[in-house]
From TrEMBL:
PANTHER family: HTH-TYPE TRANSCRIPTIONAL REGULATOR RV0890C-RELATED (PTHR47691:SF3), REGULATOR-RELATED (PTHR47691). It holds the Pfam family BTAD. Residues 1-96 form the OmpR/PhoB-type domain. This is BTAD domain-containing putative transcriptional regulator. Transmembrane segments: none annotated. The keyword Transit peptide does not apply. It comes from Geodermatophilus arenarius. The keyword DNA-binding applies. Residues 1-96 bind DNA. Keywords: DNA-binding.
Length: 950
């Protein structure tokens, strides 16, 4: 390597060097040790004798100095100018100014997170901490931690990582997400029993979730540990929090209601009368639609109104953005994803949404309905009719046409508000902008020319970096496009004129990039923008132009795992029109599909590796474009691209988003050549979808389409047709067939060296043995599953291994099993894997129901009911209800237990309280499930309150 290619050094795990194209080979152990010693020094000079000791120990051999020089020369050839390795008496130093070191990035992120937390911004703190912790791939300086040169640094970084994990839990509690923090804090307390900070945070988190007794127990357990091991009492923070919990300090329970409203990046300007009137309308009826042309500020007004009205809704305020959906497409999956629920067995996704909302009190904001109007209107109409405590606030360029709809046209900003918005955005571009009298007249003219439309004002204000208000006003006055737009109303014509004026002022290469950006449905990171919008340019050139487009308010930048860039929907529509006029649409679409198919395959592989968390968080932001890519590939009959994408996404979509992509797989099976190497994986994905819906007959028939063929190595864990057949057998009571399948597949995976597959199959061997009530026969498989999972460093695999071992130890060693289940849940939750998180929560609750405090067990089982209610997995919900019945029986709540037993029998489900009576009637399973869940909730509430059996 001889150029100035950017290098990234990674020491938060096995030592790795990467450039723009992937890993860089450094050499054997000694060159790697030399590099590690230089990296530990962080650019400082390391004396030659210390480098000799690091590489060869206390007794370097003859010729070691010469060999050291050879290793230095070799490293120079590998690293080149990107990270110069200099001779500086009395040794060497590695200059990192032009490279990055993950340990430095980690520490910087932790510092910014702590600054954000101190400034009262826990959301920013959480985002920075998630990014920081995602950099870890294992132990710090893993292969050198026992060496003298690296031990202290490894210990320091590990301590900082532990502190960051505690910081993350604090941020979750501050954001009202204490339930997510509890398992992480419990794991921290187990690992650091005398460290007071996580114990104090655990007390607070348990109390915030309504578990006062558990919060107090955490204090008593801390005091006992400190007394036994150190002979001291808890410090003042723990004692003070204990006192506040005892007196039910209201400040401890204060937390924001649930929801997903975005935090405003800038202040809301004006529109106070509109806000007040829309709030009044929301209180008067179940549906308000804000209408107006694009760029009039409908979305901002809706979010502002929703934020001010959130306290009225016990179940929060939820924003569903429809802009990324293809024209005319159904909206049910998007609404379900926004609500964080999944399609339920036996129901369509729309019916699932309605079933979930029916008993809840919330405000649903449905944004940008115009291009999917029939589907949006149909679903909103059902919500209005069937969900009495749900209020809908919609935005659309035209009314929905639903009974009971109150239509509120969003007017342009009056001059005073328009001027205030212009000044705010101008100062964002040029902090010293001042509104003197001459400028005020020009700003008034600008606002008038764009008819007071916020988007037009922002586009004009962004020009303050290079133009004066008078110059902008003059150019708008002279623009021949004014009044000549293609919109149906004058205000739309004015907005088109403002956009066209901003677009025409761009250099040609920026215009081309802007047109290319319109291909993205949900935004993109720099790599995607480069690959799709302008692959002929260099990435640095694309970044420069992208930065200028952001400065001019033509592109919006959002921070996250990676910075992402997108267009407001009005600008995107204009960009697409310009791309069509330039004859670029087809090529842009082709590159968009190709890039996202490639991305899906890389993400699918990444989700099975040690960086699963980072991949999950990044890929969730790409989901809208994965959907768009599949839709375009299928429309163009590009079956190879479509099946590649479908085969790659199950790890992302089915375990983290919902079940929408199962339909993609089902759509392909009749048209894809069965001889295609990815056909078995597509079959497996479609069959798994039927299994998730509880349609076992269809799952079996679909899985058999593969004809016994195995998917390719690396296929998503849940997309093996043979596994679906085995799972159907298992859930229908044929445990022997399932066990034989997974035992044979484990042997195959072991022979193939496929560790991810081996964890999965051994996990199921253990599960089958537990179902056979022979857990001791599954112990060896469970232990091997965990050992192999640890070697993969993949969080989902590690979660599965812990779950398997906990399951077979549940009766013989419940304390150990409970710890394993809690760790399994925390691992799965950290990578957004809702299914494995759910089963770990459930088995932990079931273990507490048998061996722990009944009130705590009742609260845990209530949380599990809520989880499966959102996830929509009836199979797991029925299993949880059986655990509830056992708890009710244990605490002597005979009437409640009998009522739940009757619900189980009515649904034709097994009950732990005995077989059904001879000739016992069965009814509609859905109605029976709803009745059983309602009965269980009420009974568990009484147990949690200490009133069971009263």
């Amino acid at each position: 390597m001889t150029g100035a290619t950017h290098l990234h050094f990674r020491v938060l795990g096995p030592l790795q060097v990467e450039d723009g194209s992937g890993p860089v080979a450094v050499g054997g152990h000694k060159p790697r040790t030399l590099l590690a010693a230089l990296l530990v020094a962080r650019g400082e000079v390391v004396p030659a004798d210390r480098l000799l000791a690091a590489v060869w120990g206390d007794a370097p051999p003859d010729g070691a100095v010469t060999a050291l020089r050879a290793y230095v020369s070799r490293l120079r050839g590998v690293l080149g100018d990107a990270a110069p390795l200099r001779h500086r008496p009395p040794g060497y130093c590695l200059e990192l100014d032009g490279a990055t070191l993950d340990a430095v990035e980690f520490e910087q992120r932790v510092r910014t997170a702590r600054a954000a937390a101190a400034a009262g911004d826990p959301a920013r703190a959480l985002a920075d901490l998630d990014t920081a912790l995602a950099l870890w791939r294992g132990d710090a300086l893993a292969e050198f931690a026992d060496d003298d040169f690296a031990g202290a640094e490894a210990a320091r970084l590990t301590e900082l990582r532990t502190g960051a994990a505690a910081d993350r839990a604090d941020a979750l509690v501050e954001l009202g997400r204490a339930a997510e923090a509890v398992p992480e804090l419990e794991a921290l307390v187990r690992r650091h029993p005398t460290w007071e900070r996580p114990a104090v945070a655990l007390m607070r988190a348990r109390y915030a979730t309504g578990h006062q007794a558990d919060a107090l127990a955490a204090f008593h357990e801390l005091r006992t540990r400190l007394d036994d091991e150190l002979g001291v009492e808890p410090a003042a923070p723990a004692r003070e929090l204990y006192r506040r919990i005892l007196v039910h300090d209201p400040a401890l329970a204060a937390r924001p209601p649930p929801g997903n409203l975005p935090r405003r990046a800038s202040g809301f300007v004006g529109r106070e009368s509109e806000v007040a009137r829309v709030l009044e309308a929301l209180r008067a009826g179940p549906l308000v639609t804000l209408t107006g042309v694009g760029g009039t500020g409908k979305s901002r007004l809706a979010v502002e109104v929703a934020a001010r009205d959130r306290a009225r809704f016990d179940d929060g305020v939820w924003l569903c953005e429809l802009a990324a959906l293809p024209d005319g497409s159904p909206v049910g999956d998007a609404v379900a994803a926004a609500l964080r629920i999944r399609q339920r067995s036996g129901l369509s996704v729309e019916e699932t949404v309605l079933d979930y909302l029916r008993g809840r009190s919330l405000l649903l904001v449905v944004d940008n309905c115009e291009h999917v109007l029939p589907h949006a209107a149909a679903l909103v109409a059902e919500v209005v009719q069937r969900c009495p405590r749900v209020v809908v606030l919609a935005t659309s360029r035209e009314p929905l046409g639903v009974d009971g709809e109150q239509v509120w046209p969003v007017p342009p900003l009056p001059l005073a508000d328009a001027t205030a918005l212009f000044v705010q955005r101008a100062r964002a571009a040029t902090p010293d902008f001042r509104l003197d009298p001459a400028a005020a007249d020009a700003v008034a003219a600008i606002c008038s020319r764009v008819d007071g439309l916020p988007l037009g004002i922002e586009l004009a204000a962004a020009r303050m970096r290079v133009m004066s208000p008078g110059e902008v006003a003059a150019r708008l006055e002279d623009a021949p496009l004014l009044g000549g737009g293609r919109g149906p109303v004058p205000r739309h014509q004015s907005l088109v004129a403002a956009i066209e004026w901003s677009y025409r002022l761009l250099p040609e290469d920026e215009q081309r990039l802007f047109r290319g950006m319109s291909a993205f449905a949900g935004g993109a990171d720099l790599r995607a923008v480069h690959a799709v919008a302008d692959p002929a340019a260099t990435e640095d050139d694309v970044l420069d132009r992208l930065t200028r487009l952001v400065d001019r308010s033509m592109v919006v930048a959002r921070s996250g795992v990676h910075s992402r860039y997108g267009l407001l929907e009005t600008l995107r529509a204009y960009g697409r029109a310009q791309a069509g006029a330039a004859g670029e649409s087809a090529e842009l679409a082709r590159r968009h599909v190709a890039h996202h198919v490639d991305y899906a395959e890389r993400a699918g592989a990444g989700l099975q590796g040690p960086d699963e968390r980072a991949w999950a968080e990044e890929a969730l932001g790409v989901y809208d474009d994965l959907r768009a890519a599949f839709t375009r590939a299928a429309a163009d009959r590009e079956w190879d691209l479509a099946v590649r994408l479908v085969s790659a996404v199950p790890e992302l979509v089915h375990l983290r988003v919902g079940y929408e992509a199962y339909a993609w797989a089902e759509q392909l099976l009749p048209v894809v050549d069965p001889g295609h190497p990815l056909y078995p994986a597509a079959v497996g994905a479609a069959a798994r979808g039927a299994w998730n819906r509880g349609d076992f007959a269809r799952a079996r028939a679909t899985a058999r389409l593969a004809g016994g063929r195995l998917p390719l190595p690396g296929t998503a864990r849940i997309a093996y047709p043979g596994d679906v057949l085995a799972d159907v057998a298992l859930y229908e009571g044929d445990v022997g067939t399932a066990l034989a399948h997974y035992a044979a597949e484990a042997e195959r995976a072991r022979a193939d060296g496929d560790r991810i597959r081996l964890v999965w199959t051994l996990y199921y061997v253990a599960v089958c043995q537990a179902v056979r009530r022979r857990p001791e026969e599954g112990l060896a498989a469970a232990r091997e599953s965990l050992d192999v999972a640890e070697a993969t460093a993949n969080p989902t695999a590690q979660s599965m291994g812990r779950y398997a071992l906990g399951l077979v130890l549940k009766k013989s060693d419940p304390d150990r099993a409970l710890a394993l289940f809690d760790e399994a849940g925390a691992l799965a939750a950290a990578v957004h894997n809702f299914w494995w998180h759910g089963i770990a929560l459930m088995e932990a609750a079931a273990t507490r129901a048998v061996h722990g405090d009944p009130a705590a067990a009742a609260r845990a089982l209530l949380a599990v009911i809520d989880h499966w209610d959102r996830v929509g997995d009836s199979t797991q919900q029925w299993l949880d209800l059986r655990y509830v019945a056992r708890l009710l029986q244990r605490v002597g709540a005979e009437a409640d237990a009998a009522a739940l037993h009757a619900c189980l029998v009515a649904a034709g489900k097994p009950s732990p309280l005995g077989p059904p009576a001879e000739g016992a009637p069965t009814g509609d399973p859905r109605a029976a499930e709803a009745a059983a869940v309602a009965q269980a909730r009420a009974a568990l509430g009484r147990v949690a309150a200490g009133q069971a059996g009263a």
